[in-house]
């Protein structure tokens, strides 16, 4: 798990004050990180390199890079998208001129393009003069490197209409949250962290800002372990899934729960079973020994479904030790707020549209009183997930998307905390993936995992299982279940 920061300006300032670094030293190290990648990419062979520079210190990094690469096997050119304005950028520009760096008036054919136009301070719309250049650069077949953050992306990870599309982003000093959010995934490429003259530990420890979020990694996954032989199925819990209009959804959840180690899995349904699964049990009432409950997948959003949901709520609302996973259609239930306020172990797994409905049904609004729209959730997801957890402090929220965002209220720190899982594949964009996630979470809850551990490990397992296929279009829910068994 790694720390993610909303901004690193204060970390830069702290490093200069505590370790007597200068902007010069930090810029030299920033450029050196990109220089190493260029050497590795070209293997020292001649190549055309075009550096796009802006007016601020990000542009200054570009001038340093140009100076370092000048008089080398490379043909280095600089395109000044904007004239340098900061004192540091002006100085580095003068040094580049002194080193006889070649400047060009427009985009030229190159093997590598380095984006040093805007830094993390960018916000709003890209000026027209930069739009044309970024558009042409994106269409180029050149290998593309972004300095710190791709130009056109702001600190929230929001991209209004255009962004430099990099193959590698070399981010400076510490990891930025924006680089790992859903909108960013198509623009960052591989993310590499470059130190600025001191170790990562010195750069971030005793810093004046706390991490905005934490990045989940493959090594954080802890799979279920059966380390004793003298056991029976009752030792590994009993997960229950509530079936609804689309009974296949509860079947997928149940099958994934079984594949992830749950001892017994039941489906509650009033229907005659047409697609009987021998590893699942079917019941018309809540079993007494259930260890976790999943509700909402394929439930429906009509009055009959609402009545069914309310009936389940009424039967389990006083079972405070029973963990419950809410998904999909249950977020449309107008009575969900009462359940959230009166039950202590709840995990919610909406996608953005469902989350907008959930926020409306629970009365969670922006600080100035307006409701959150779907577009606002997509553009800045961390604000609404934090707002939700500020209200429902006993719940854990997993917002689904290209990046999965897990949010909960840290009662020791007295604030919401966020975990980010960027490891999933686009192959998960299939009906049934969310049902399987619910099944995985319920399985771990039934096996007595703590709620937060259940959510994080299920999220990681789903993401890693999605990558065990050669292409990105053919993954089915059944494949996911098979892949989970091979983790």
UniProtKB/TrEMBL annotation:
Binding site for K(+): 58, 115, 151
Keywords assigned by UniProt, alphabetized: ATP-binding, Isomerase, Lyase, Metal-binding, Multifunctional enzyme, NAD, NADP, Nucleotide-binding, Potassium
Residue stretches making up the YjeF N-terminal domain: 8-204
Residue ranges annotated for the YjeF C-terminal domain, each copy included: 216-487
Family that this chain belongs to: In the C-terminal section; belongs to the NnrD/CARKD family. Belongs to the NnrD/CARKD family.
Function: Bifunctional enzyme that catalyzes the epimerization of the S- and R-forms of NAD(P)HX and the dehydration of the S-form of NAD(P)HX at the expense of ADP, which is converted to AMP. This allows the repair of both epimers of NAD(P)HX, a damaged form of NAD(P)H that is a result of enzymatic or heat-dependent hydration. Catalyzes the epimerization of the S- and R-forms of NAD(P)HX, a damaged form of NAD(P)H that is a result of enzymatic or heat-dependent hydration. This is a prerequisite for the S-specific NAD(P)H-hydrate dehydratase to allow the repair of both epimers of NAD(P)HX.
Name of the molecule in the record: Bifunctional NAD(P)H-hydrate repair enzyme
Organismal lineage: Bacteria, Pseudomonadati, Spirochaetota, Spirochaetia, Spirochaetales
